[in-house]
Design goal:
200 residues; alpha/beta; Glycerol-3-phosphate (1)-acyltransferase
């Protein structure tokens, strides 16, 4: 499916550049090799397409389980993602993410767990902290701007809007802790790093 991934990435790159003036800032902060978590805010259905297009590395996504059951869309999602239950992440899903990261893959996560209805940044759920702590993978925060105007929650049509993606410095996970408090602290730190990109 690798050729399919790069075909769609090129297609969306052209579309986002022409219609939304997609701009990528500080991409060099994304490590070229090794297991990496790219953690981004989430305010629109466009976000996975935008972040996947902004990344020059092959990305794997964790997608809501229900998307895999939708005709046609499910086939597309299945090619680039693996399923997750947003409300109750299963141990097998966490294990899958950790295994992929230890094999050197880049995985895109949306720490908020769902789309923000007004474009504001929400608190992170513990899942991203759990995966980061168990894998010890570097975490690159990413701020997506403009998708909440291009396709806000509840909208039926896409509107013209400038879209940009800003990448932050990688966060190194330090310490041997694995408990809930440690995972929640990592999740908070990741979300705070995303918030800080808004001020740049």
């Amino acid at each position: 499916m690798s050729y399919l991934y790069w075909f769609f990435r090129t297609l969306f790159l052209i579309v986002f550049k022409i219609f939304f003036g997609l701009k990528t800032i500080d991409y060099e902060r994304v490590p070229e090799k090794g297991g990496v978590i790219v953690a981004a805010n989430h305010a629109s259905y466009l976000d996975p397409l935008v972040i996947g297009t902004a990344l020059k590395r092959r990305a794997t996504f964790m997608a809501r389980r229900g998307l895999f059951k939708i005709p046609l869309i499910g086939t597309f999602v299945n090619a680039f993602s693996f399923p997750i239950d947003r409300d109750r992440p299963q141990p097998s899903t966490i294990k899958e993410a950790v295994t992929r990261l230890k094999k050197g893959e880049l995985i895109v996560l949306f720490p908020e767990g769902g789309r923000s209805t007004d474009g504001s940044l929400l608190d992170a759920r513990r899942g991203v902290g759990m995966i980061a702590a168990m894998s010890m993978a570097r975490v690159v925060p990413a701020l997506i701007e403009g998708t909440d105007r291009a396709l806000p929650v509840g909208a039926k049509f896409i509107k013209p809007a400038k879209i940009r993606v800003t990448f932050g410095n990688p966060i190194e996970i330090e310490g041997e802790e694995t408990g809930k408090d440690f995972q929640e602290r990592i999740a908070r730190d990741i979300m705070e790093a995303i918030r800080s990109l808004k001020c740049q």
